[in-house]
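Quick one: structure tokens for this chain, please?
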Amino acid sequence: MRVVLVGAPGAGKGTQAKFISQHFAIPSISTGEMFRANLAAETELGKAAKRYMDAGDLVPDEVTIGIVSDRLVQRDTGNGFLLDGFPRTPPQAEALSKLLADRGTPLDVVLELQVDSNEVVRRLSGRRTCRTCEHVWHLDFDPPREPGTCDVDGGELFQRDDDLPETILRRLDVYAEQTAPLVDYYRDAGLLQSITAQGEVDEITQLAIEALESALRR
């Protein structure tokens, strides 16, 4: 199964990607994680990407497409994959379609997680990240035992620049302007399945799996 997961920042794509990939035994591929790894290693790509990510903007297509292309030729994608964070624009979707068509492995389904803007701000602004192990906590949903301190290694917790309320609003504007048209692109292609992503995590997961299995039976 080859799946693309789409939705606004804070829609729960990372959480659901983990459960979906486990259920279908396919790797979850997150461009966000790849960029953060480059940030931590202070590579040239990481330095270039940081300027865009901190401002809530999208990393340029040519950088992102190159990273994803290299990842999709790795052996663990032979039985499929789940893409989380790519594509984010119709041009990226067209590049992905061409890439997969050239390999004879077209997408099976695109799953959209729908959530309202107020819930997005609540989810993202409550996140705190450990400076040392990078574990992410949430002040409401998964708070550390001691405020400001990571339970895993005792590291200091901080709020990432892209989790500040003003940056979140900017990210939502970017999503509406540049990424939301992706939904129309995949709807027109007959690949889109949409579910409501508000509620208990396990309930959302069940909806996601049912939507994906339904798409495969078509």
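Strands lie at 2-7, 28-30, 81-84, 109-114, 127-130, 136-138, 157-158, 192-196.
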